[in-house]
Amino acid sequence: MTEPAEPYVTKSDYAYQTMREKILSGEFAPGAVLNQAMLAKTIGISTTPLREALRRLKSEGFVELGAHKDAKVSELSGEEARDLLELRRSLDPLAVGLAAERRTRDDIRNIREAMRGVEPLRSNPGYDDLIAHRRFHVALYSASHNELLIQTLDSLWDKADRYRRVGLQVERSQAERDQKHAEHLGLVDAIVAGDSDTAAALMLRHIDTSLGAKAASRLGMRPTATPREI
What we know:
Order of helices and strands: HHHEEHHHHHHH
Pfam families: FCD, GntR
InterPro entries: GntR_C (IPR011711), TF_FadR/GntR_C (IPR008920), Tscrpt_reg_HTH_GntR (IPR000524), WH-like_DNA-bd_sf (IPR036388), WH_DNA-bd_sf (IPR036390)
GO molecular function, one term: DNA-binding transcription factor activity
Keywords: DNA-binding, Transcription, Transcription regulation
Domain HTH gntR-type: 9-76
Largest sheet: 2 strands, antiparallel
Number of helices: 10
Strand order of the largest sheet: 1-2
CATH topology of the largest domain: Four Helix Bundle (Hemerythrin (Met), subunit A)
């Protein structure tokens, strides 16, 4: 039994967060059928807040709902992996380039603090590992102080986490993991130094060799357009 619903604002919020964690952690695999009655009992809530949570997850593309009470975790697709990669190749370099120009002292402190908690992901990462990885990238693009860009990247990150597990199906070598760590450090240094060109170039390289790029390749898709040089 998971923790009780009381710490959350509503039982629907609790169900949403619990289900989302199980999907992103891989506990509920793509295509898995979700028995709503059993889930409600396991989580410790009634089916009404569970259905509310499932509708919210459907709007984010995590689950599919049938005409009656059927639900299943959304399948992964090569097309979506490619689309995510193409968007991130344009938007992430833009965000860190702006961050290098606009970062504040608070931004720098948040970036450095997030960097201390992130390590290159290994195969079968836990939910906490994914959260630490995300926290670092959020700290980077939040320093852009472009709210529309931040909201867009937040949405893309929600979808991209499931594809990172596909990219991790082939274990990365220690050299690859060391390279990712070096890129993270380089991004921090470039943003702190106010070097927008270096930050953008590093981020583009980071995306091109990312787990999302590996996932798109494994699913038979590659980006069809190259973003303009930033």
